Amino acid sequence: MRGVKKQNLPEKTCPVCGLGFAWRKKWEKVWQEVKYCSERCRRSSKPNMT
Prior knowledge:
Blueprint: E1 11-13, E2 20-22, H1 39-45
Antiparallel strand pairs: 1-2
């Protein structure tokens, strides 16, 4: 991903909030598995255990 402009980074849409989010360096090796834009959306996608 080196030398790629921000507007040309791959994007996905979060299934929980519906917002689009772009590729990040910390997701470089796991981009195929990334589904949610944030930890908050990831947590809210699971059923509550209470």
